[in-house]
Design goal:
The chain is an alpha+beta fold and 129 residues long. It has a single domain, classed as Trna Endonuclease, Chain: A, domain 1 (3-Layer(aba) Sandwich). The chain is 36% helix and 33% strand. The protein has 3 helices and 5 strands; from the N terminus they run H-E-E-E-H-H-E-E. A 5-stranded mixed sheet has the order 1-2-3-4-5. Strand 4 and strand 5 form a beta hairpin. The termini are far apart. The relative contact order is 0.18.
Length: 129
């Protein structure tokens, strides 16, 4: 009987990565709440894109991309321009559906997460052109 080995990209590896990402998003939301933000939505998904966390503090509406890597420095630069554009489209959809938020100032942030390190909040990490 032939046995099949699981590849590194198997369902188990994806499950573990999803679990790490979920944990990172949880800790990122804790940091934001400690900083006075109200978490409006987690894992907001629409056909044009997705946003890990949507948070509000005062007049600021923060669309937060959570990145988990082996080192915080690697997580800080992990989001690429194409990904930010998808986040921007999702943000437009979100605000369009929530009229009470249309007067808020938008900001695109990163929460850089790594093992055994407090998440690092990078405000205004990206700006639309």
């Amino acid at each position: 009987m032939t046995q099949f080995r699981k590849s590194p990209n198997s369902a188990t590896a994806k499950y573990k990565a999803d679990k790490r990402g979920s944990r990172a998003e949880f800790w990122a939301s804790v940091v934001l709440r400690l900083k006075g933000y109200q978490i409006l939505r987690r894992n907001y998904r629409v056909p044009v894109g997705e946003i890990d966390l949507i948070a509000r503090r005062g007049k600021v509406l923060a669309f937060v991309e959570v990145k988990y890597r082996a080192q915080t420095s690697a997580a800080q630069t992990a989001a690429r321009n194409q990904q930010w554009q998808r986040i921007e489209r999702a943000a437009s959809t979100f605000v369009g559906r929530h009229r009470s938020l249309q007067d808020k100032l938008w900001r695109f942030d990163v929460m850089a997460c790594a093992p055994r390190a407090w998440p690092k909040h990078i405000e205004d990490a990206w700006r639309p052109r």
